[in-house]
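Appendix C. Worked example: Glycyl-radical enzyme activating protein
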Amino acid sequence: MNRRTLPVSNIERFAIHDGPGIRTTVFLQSCPLRCQWCANPEAQTEGKHLMFLEQKCVGCGSCVKNCPQHAITIREGKARVCREKCIVCGKCAQTCPNEALSISGKQMTPDEIYDIVVRDSIYYEKTGGGVTFSGGEALLHIEEIAILTDRLRRAGIHTAVETCGYVPEAYIKKAVQAIELFLFDIKTLDADKMKRYTEGELSVVLNNFTYVAKCGPDRVTARIPVIPNLNHTEKEMLEIFQFLVDNHVKKADLLPYHTLGITKYKQLGKEYPFDCRESLRPDELIRYRSIGEEMGLCITIGG
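Step 2, the predicted output written as structure tokens:
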């Protein structure tokens, strides 16, 4: 068994929005960006994270009795976690009868991950699916992913990665050799907005996107999160679509902004940093799809 490990946030079986067919999506921890609208904040940093879903809590006090740090109390019929005291030992989650408390994040070897994802091989074969690596930013772990994808390829299983593209060029070059399909985020072509809303440098993303596209534009699907205040205008979409055309990339997914991240931030005991609290409807993106199609692109809404 290979003892190198990957920090896994979650493994989702029967995913249908992370590439073609029925897939298993492996969510890995650590991300170099801090997108204000992030839907997976538990995957931003590596390690174990305590998640508390208040709606499931019945105030039984089991967590209070089992916390060695005395970091949990019951107030107004609900558990309250003192994050400063919590060492994320997981004992509260192990004894919570309603699973209101849970631990996100664990180290897994490539072999352990393989044993899980291979279970659904028959569904991959029947639907043209496979395995997708997501995050966080999966390509931060390309060395370990390459071990997995080599084995998956030999088993005839298709591989894909969801990436923000904000990684060193050397990682991208390694990924091109190891992964078949890139679901590549393009959030904006405005460097100031990129910095303000994600803390990242736009040039890194664009250079990496261009490199992957040159290696095979048919291996790239652009994923465009449509975000209020960032890119929710025809001007922004036209610029992004033209960038795709210039790089000979034909496929793009428009992903309407949603507020699912708000709940996860609350579960982590954190404030949601984005100022928009209303999701976009898919039909609000139809006009953008029409613009893209007129430019020769194949556009889907929602992945």
